[in-house]
Amino acid sequence: MMLFGKISQQLCGLKKLPWSCDCRNFWGWLNAVFNKVDYERIKDVGPDRAASEWLLRCGATVRYHGQERWQKDYNHLPTGPLDKYKIQAIDATDSCIMRIGFDHLETSSICS
Hints:
By secondary structure, this protein is mainly α. It has 5 helices and 2 strands, in the order H-H-H-H-E-E-H.
């Protein structure tokens, strides 16, 4: 994450991107990449884990059933059986989640 932070700071400081691209288009593209649904990942780790990864990657926070604290750090996602951690709540304030990523939630427990 530190590398991405340094790169984004450098890009934000530029008036024009080196490849003459509108900065808004760049950030829109980057947000779309973060929101892309990986159906294989959903099959591999389960819908709630995949949805949690997507939400945290985009800057949202999640809370699981039976837990008081909000999960904020992608690198500290809980491990264990795939069906153990079910999403109870999502706080997407100031996140970059987009409609194209909502398929992550389709089979998660939050929509059940």
